[in-house]
Amino acid sequence: QAQLRESGGDWVQPGGSLRRSCVASRRSLEDYAVTWYSKDPGKEREEVGCLTSGDGSTQYPSSVKGRFNISRDDATNTVYLPMNSLEPEDPAVYFCASDIAGCYSGRKADYSGQGTRVTVSS
After folding, report:
1. Residue (of 65, 37, 70, 38) closest to 53 by Cα position
2. What are the tens digits of pLDDT across the range 10-44?
3. Cα 96 to the chain's mean position, in Å?
4. 54: nearest Cα among 29, 83, 25
5. What is the C-alpha separation between 53 and 58, in angstroms, rounded?
6. Rounded to whole angstroms, how far apart are CA atoms 36 and 81?
């Protein structure tokens, strides 16, 4: 059974917004740092942001700052990735991963989702 499952959006127009969700089963995301990554075929994965365990503070690479705003809902055990100003050249596939050791631990993630794909076109 998957530990993390992503969902959220199949298609959006250029300049549009959508929100991806990462739901955990059998684990409380409050205990884990959760990182969102983009990963398109043939490309290296790139981090787009990390939400820490506990207080849920966030960290973003400079390349995406201001566009994304990761948050967590403890009642539904879900971490969200709202994405704004999407363009066709943005990566299409995003997945979430959790790490008990925190953001940027250098460890392999404890759990990872399969990812969701979004098409940005007019």
Report:
1. 70
2. 899 999 999 999 999 888 899 999 999 998 888 99
3. 4
4. 29
5. 10
6. 8
